[in-house]
Amino acid sequence: MGTEQSIERTTASQITAKKASAKIVCLTAYDYPSALVCDAAGVDLVLVGDSLGNVVHGEATTLRVTMDDMLYHTRIVDRALKRAMLVGDMPFLSFSLGETEAVRNAGKFVACGAQGVKLEWQPGIERVVKAIADAGIPVMGHLGLTPQAIHRIGGYKVQGRDAAQAELMLREAGRIERAGAFAIVLELVPAELARRVTEAVKIPTIGIGAGPHTDGQILVFHDMLGLVPGKKLKHVKRYLDGFEAMAKAVGEYAREVREGGFPGSEHGFS
Ligand code: KIV
Question: pTM for the complete prediction?
């Protein structure tokens, strides 16, 4: 566990303070090389997201991701980060069975090197946020599309389009802030509503599919690097066609092995 490293890392209070001064750059990472890339590129906050269920495990939802999965990946990412803040995503049902259980599980993330945890919204979430924050563990809220509630929501769709939903989101953002969260993720929220939430709270908002007015942005590592082929999500900008690039390189290796081009004499030992 990288306790010495974490002293040098960006802290939750530094992330909160950036609301007034700079856009906050966040990205997910799940393993050693992806976390090394985030740190080297100057990302402020790395989230070990339960989206690993989708992009690492190949599942259709995040619902089968367990605490053990999340702790395993958090421990690995911890070894790579020197300056970015490390936040662990609390998986489905790990914070829904009462405050005591939630604090115990949040503590397990800290024991693996996380400096904070993220919780998706559910009714009464402010009590859980407060219990974890009071235990000394920084908490990020998560409003808008909350994939752990996919069966209630009924699909991966934009949230807060009608007035009642929008008012609820504004109210819940205030509650999460007052409960002691240091930041709030807004996922798949209309840009204008994201702007209203951002102006209504003193803690930073981190958007994903929430337009340009949030205090920071987060994307899923594999999505922005095009590592998983398939339908392109509207809110994602692909900075690389990683799948194509890797498949091309692996294809070249396969061809050279078959044709005798690899290994060359420079790759062997006399
Ligand atoms: O699990 C995840 O990667 C997330 C981000 C998309 C915010 O929750």
Answer: 0.96
